[in-house]
């Protein structure tokens, strides 16, 4: 066993121990789901930021930076824009509704605002897409452990899956919030310190420039055929309405904690967005031959060849923290949806609090197993995340935001908006073969169809109400 692997495994065991210790205090579903609505700005901001800095924000963004250059900023930058909108608009509004009506999940909100069909449709959507984003986090860990310590990709995914499943299952949002705070400190130190060290060992910015061809657009913020502002079309909505993030907001103690904690998280994301991009670009100095899925090795290359042993291990722990913290947000979304939106609502309405808590923990274990299994079959971090964020945006953005803006839209508006968005996305992808990196993409078509379906259903319900 290498020194790097031994240190990372020790760190992973520490995270598990902390999660189990905190989880011993969790004895009710409300604590597991929303931390008793007690999170202040520090814990709330930390758990939001940690959830948003994951596989896409590290390994994925570095791979895009390696291939296209500075325009890869839009991947994480779009998440920052969405997080700021969550902090100052969507978050406080939906928190007030959740507190007033004792809502625990986004499914609770959709049924309260529309009807049971909207809840059920959203639940099925989350079950279908959650394993993909969890798999992306585990794939990223596997890439890192493989490149740095020689761990086979399969076992790297299994190690990450076990760690996150154990500590999240122990205490839900409470455990996640405290573990995420530790992860965030390690992440901040590890990756931010890496920039000047890597730049010095690479020979400065001129060494990076020399690795790109004369026609490359590596220094453009908007790439002609790569990353650009169009990433915001499907990423900004996803970071405003993702159930894993909204339900963390439910756990805030008041609107001020949301505006302050989530707002700082959004600003931090805008600033952090350039870090993995530059690390990926510096990776070209040591190996400029990576293509396709192999660009995911850009960040591991920097950690192994571009940094001294101890700093490289710290960077490895930082990336490990990033992927694991995002993975627990997915398990949070999956397990609460299973226990509250399906089990208590449709299977056993008279279930006790202890039964719901038990189902939530079983759901977390099932989600961890499913994500680990899928990680073995998916090779690309960005591909897995694009599937998740695209379907999440087109399926939930219009129902959630429309419910806040138009209170008189009828019950059918929620479900037709979700189904319309998914249909538009699939038609754009499978029938018209629209490019993912363009203004007219499957995601933008799905959002347009979703909004149109919501508007038509809402107007029909309004006319019916007037006629009655």
Give the amount of beta strand, in percent.
under 5%
CATH class, named Mainly Alpha
Mean pLDDT: 86
- The gross shape turns out to be globular
CATH superfamily: Sodium/glucose cotransporter
Number of domains: 1
Low-pLDDT residue intervals, each spanning 5 or more residues: none
**Quaternary structure classification:** single chain
Q: Level of helix content?
A: over 70%
Query: Would you report the number of β strands?
Result: 0
Indicate the structural class: mainly alpha
Number of helices: 19
Radius of gyration of CA atoms, rounded to a whole number: 21 Å
At CATH's second level, what is the architecture?
Answer: Up-down Bundle
- In whole angstroms, the N-to-C terminal distance is 74 Å
Main sheet summary: none
Write down the secondary-structure element order. Answer: HHHHHHHHHHHHHHHHHHH
CATH topology: Sodium/glucose cotransporter
What does this structure look like?
The protein has 468 residues and is mostly helical. It has a single domain (3-378), classed as Sodium/glucose cotransporter (Up-down Bundle), CATH 1.20.1730.10. The chain contains 19 helices and no strands. It starts with a helix and ends with a helix. The model has no long low-confidence stretch (mean pLDDT 86).
């Amino acid at each position: 066993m290498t020194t790097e692997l031994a240190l990372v495994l020790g760190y992973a065991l520490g995270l598990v121990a902390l999660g189990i210790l905190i989880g011993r205090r969790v004895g009710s579903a409300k604590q597991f789901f929303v931390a008793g609505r007690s999170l202040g700005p520090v814990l709330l901001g930390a758990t939001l930021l940690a959830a948003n800095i994951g596989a896409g924000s590290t390994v994925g963004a570095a791979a895009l930076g390696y291939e296209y250059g500075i325009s890869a900023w839009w991947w994480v930058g779009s998440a920052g824009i969405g997080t700021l909108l969550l902090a100052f608009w969507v978050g406080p509004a939906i928190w007030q509704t959740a507190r007033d009506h004792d809502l625990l999940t986004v499914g609770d909100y959709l049924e309260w605002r529309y009807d049971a069909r909207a809840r059920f449709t959203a639940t099925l959507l989350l079950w279908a897409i959650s394993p993909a984003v969890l798999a992306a986090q585990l794939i990223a860990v596997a890439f890192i452990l493989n490149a740095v310590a020689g761990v086979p990709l399969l076992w790297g995914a299994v190690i990450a899956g076990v760690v996150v499943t154990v500590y999240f299952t122990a205490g839900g949002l409470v455990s996640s919030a405290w573990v995420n705070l530790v992860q965030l400190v390690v992440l901040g130190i590890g990756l931010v310190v890496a920039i000047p060290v890597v730049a010095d060992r690479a020979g400065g910015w001129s060494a990076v420039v020399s690795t790109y061809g004369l026609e490359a657009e590596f220094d453009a913020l908007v790439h002609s055929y790569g990353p650009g502002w169009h990433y915001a079309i499907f990423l900004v909505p996803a970071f405003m309405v993702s159930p894993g993030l909204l339900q963390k907001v439910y756990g805030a103690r008041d609107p001020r904690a949301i505006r302050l904690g989530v707002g700082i998280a959004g600003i931090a994301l805008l600033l952090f967005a350039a870090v993995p991009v530059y690390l990926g670009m510096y990776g070209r100095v040591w190996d400029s031959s990576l293509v396709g899925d192999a660009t995911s090795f850009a960040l591991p290359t920097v950690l192994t060849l571009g940094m001294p042993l101890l700093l490289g291990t710290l960077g490895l722990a930082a990336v490990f923290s990033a992927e694991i913290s995002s993975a627990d947000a997915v398990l949070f979304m999956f397990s609460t949806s299973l226990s509250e939106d399906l089990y208590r609502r449709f299977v056993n309405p008279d279930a006790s609090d202890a039964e719901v808590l038990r189902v939530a923990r079983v759901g977390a274990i099932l989600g961890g197993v499913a994500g680990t299994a899928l990680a073995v079959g998916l090779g690309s971090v960005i591909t897995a995340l694009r599937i998740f964020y695209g379907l999440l945006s087109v399926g939930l953005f219009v129902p959630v935001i429309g419910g806040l803006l138009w209170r008189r839209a009828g019950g059918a508006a929620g479900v037709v908006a979700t189904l319309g968005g998914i249909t538009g996305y699939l038609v754009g992808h499978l029938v018209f073969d629209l490019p993912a990196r363009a203004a007219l993409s499957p995601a933008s078509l799905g959002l347009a169809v979703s909004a149109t379906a919501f508007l038509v259903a809402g107007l029909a319900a309004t006319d019916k109400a007037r006629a009655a």
